[in-house]
Amino acid sequence: MALAPVSKVVFGLIAFAIFWVLAVFPAVPFLPIGRTAGSLLGAMLMVLFQVITPDEAYATIDLPILGLLFGTMVVSVYLERADMFKYIGKLLAWKSRGAKDLLCRICVISAVSSALFTNDTSCVVLTEFILKIARQHNLPPTPFLLALASSANIGSSATPIGNPQNLVIAVQSKISFGNFLIGILPAMVAGVVANATILLIMYWKLLSVHKDEEDSGAEAVVEEYDSHRFSPATMSHFSSLNSQEWNSHLEAISVQNSPQQILRNRSIATASEINGVSSNTFDSARISSLPRDGTNGVPSLTKEETSPTSSAATVDTLIHPSERKNSFIIRWKRVLWKSCVYIITVGMLVALLLGLNMSWTAITAALALIVLDFKDARPCLEKVSYSLLIFFCGMFITVDGLNKTGIPSALWDIMEPYSHVDRASGVAILAVVILVLSNLASNVPTVLLLGGRVAASAAAISKADEKKAWLILAWASTISGNLSLLGSAANLIVCEQAIRAPNLPYTLTFWSHFKFGIPSTIIVTAIGLTFIR
Questions:
Q1: How far apart, in whole angstroms, are the C-alpha atoms of residue 94 and residue 24?
Q2: pLDDT (tens digit per residue) in 258-275
Q3: Which residues lie closer than 8 Å to 109 by C-beta, 6 or more apart?
């Protein structure tokens, strides 16, 4: 493709440069409007500068990608309400055998959950819980936070719904969910093992020197985790949120009590009235959040005082039979509803594996969950990150405008002879180009800029090489996010969540991540490329 007229090239570069600055630095001092508004500003300038026409701008918006993104976010909201992420968190503390076992467990659970529920969601719901486990066992948080963020990125590469760039690749390449999974899963497994090995080597001595804690400590952390409720869909995809939006979302996190918790509160209140104790009694949610070691002048609670068994016995003796029956019905309705949510989610995954349309499958699953809930869906739909959807719309238009200047095609014409995927040197050069561009321009714009060109070049060799090129693009653009703290939304989420964790603030510095990110990114990318066929 020849270069456009000079005026079109200059104006197109100006519009894209503004978009790039605001996408990479959303709180830049001279224009702190955030990524979402920045993408819309870039799109508007492309039309105002006549780089593309209004009709062409509308045509560039990819509705299947937006539909798939919307559907997966709604499903994540209902999975959060069904306590799926609470159970995932409990797996981390269940029969843990020490610091190294915990590190490996975080790598595996983070990778698997990211492949199924997106990497950003996994990081939102697991960061604070990991901090609590680390503090409970006097462990350094850094290796565990690095394991969470890096493994979330690696795991998300395995499926089209793992991260936004994979959504784009799956829709544009028309590779089915099953073929996508089969093509990258071996690389993902090898990458998780390599990443865990690097972490163990770098932090072996640090993980070996710690104070052993009693097993009851892990149980205490799990109980504390139960009292926290997260909104993964609202917090997910930090790439579309500026710092002000991030703060407002964190403040909007609410605590919801389960029926068992309500009964427990009621039993404690009734017992205090019988014994003549002041009505200023702690409810069970506050009891579970008290320190277990008696610090700050607060006596530690014994296991018997807070155990579900003792509370259940109090309920049985003090609650009226009719109330007990109603609570039983409510409890089983809740269990039935949660089971249906899990069944619908599994059905969605099965449909995706069977090759059904990914966008409509996700939307159908989302609507099935809304109907199953049988109540006003507004509270759940408000948790969807609409700013992310708007960010994608603006980005589609801005990137298409840059493509019409002819600059990306001219640059690719220079690189294309050296980037053939049918030889090892070509794969290596292509991976380096993707890694550099993903850290300079972010991974989703990189995929939009390179995807069609890389696929067309590989298609000239063979159909199999075309599929391989798309998978290499998915793998390299995703793993490149582990290079630095700013390379991935998941990294930023872990960092921000750790800083803002109540009573457990911790700062994951840029350099502590960078010194791990360089070897991890290079080694994991190289190992994974050998498994992609």
A1: 39
A2: 333 433 343 333 334 334
A3: 88, 91, 92, 126
Tell me the pTM.
Answer: 0.73
Give the side-chain half-sphere CA count within 13 A for 482.
33
Structure tokens at 296: 């700050």
pLDDT tens per residue, range 64-112: 999 988 998 899 899 989 988 788 877 777 777 788 999 999 999 999 9
H helical segments located in 209-226: 215-226
Strand boundaries in 59-150, DSSP class E: none
Residue with structure tokens 């992609």?
532
Tally of CB atoms within 10 A around 180: 26
- Which of 400, 363, 395, 360 lies closest to 165 in space, CA to CA? 395
Contacts of 43 (CB under 8 A, 6+ apart): 19, 57, 393, 394, 395, 396, 397, 398, 401
Residue linked to tokens 């009235």: 273
Give per-residue burial for 491-526: e unless 16+ CB within 10 Å, then b: bbbbbbbbeebeeeebebeeeebeebbeebbbbbbe
Q: How far apart are CA 138 and CA 483, in angstroms?
A: 28
CB atoms within 10 A of CB 27: 14
| Alpha-carbon span 468 to 447, nearest angstrom | 15
Let me know: does 424 contact 38? Beta carbons within 8 Å: no
**DSSP secondary structure code for residue 283 in this structure:** P
Residue with tokens 């605001």: 22
Gap between the Cα atoms of 174 and 167, Å rounded = 10
- How far, CA to CA in Å, does 302 sit from each of 19, 25, 180, 307, 501? 56, 49, 51, 9, 26
Contacts of 517 (CB under 8 A, 6+ apart): 150, 482, 483, 484, 485, 487
CB atoms < 10 A from the CB of 355, how many?
A: 12
Q: What is the DSSP string of 137-176?
A: TT--HHHHHHHHHHHHHHHHTTSTTSSHHHHHHHHHHT--
Hey, what amino acid is at 346?
A: V
Sole residue written with tokens 């899990």:
342
Instruction: Assign 464 to helix, strand or coil.
Output: helix
The helix or strand, by DSSP H or E, that contains position 520, with its residue range, turns out to be helix 510-531
Q: Which residue type is seen at 147? A: A
- The count of residues in the chain is 533
* Amino acid, res. 27: A
Distance separating alpha carbons of residues 128 and 121, to the nearest angstrom: 13
State phi, psi for 430 to the nearest 5 degrees: -60, -40
* Cα–Cα distance for residue pair 344/346, rounded to 1 Å: 5
Average the pLDDT over 485-492 and give the result: 81
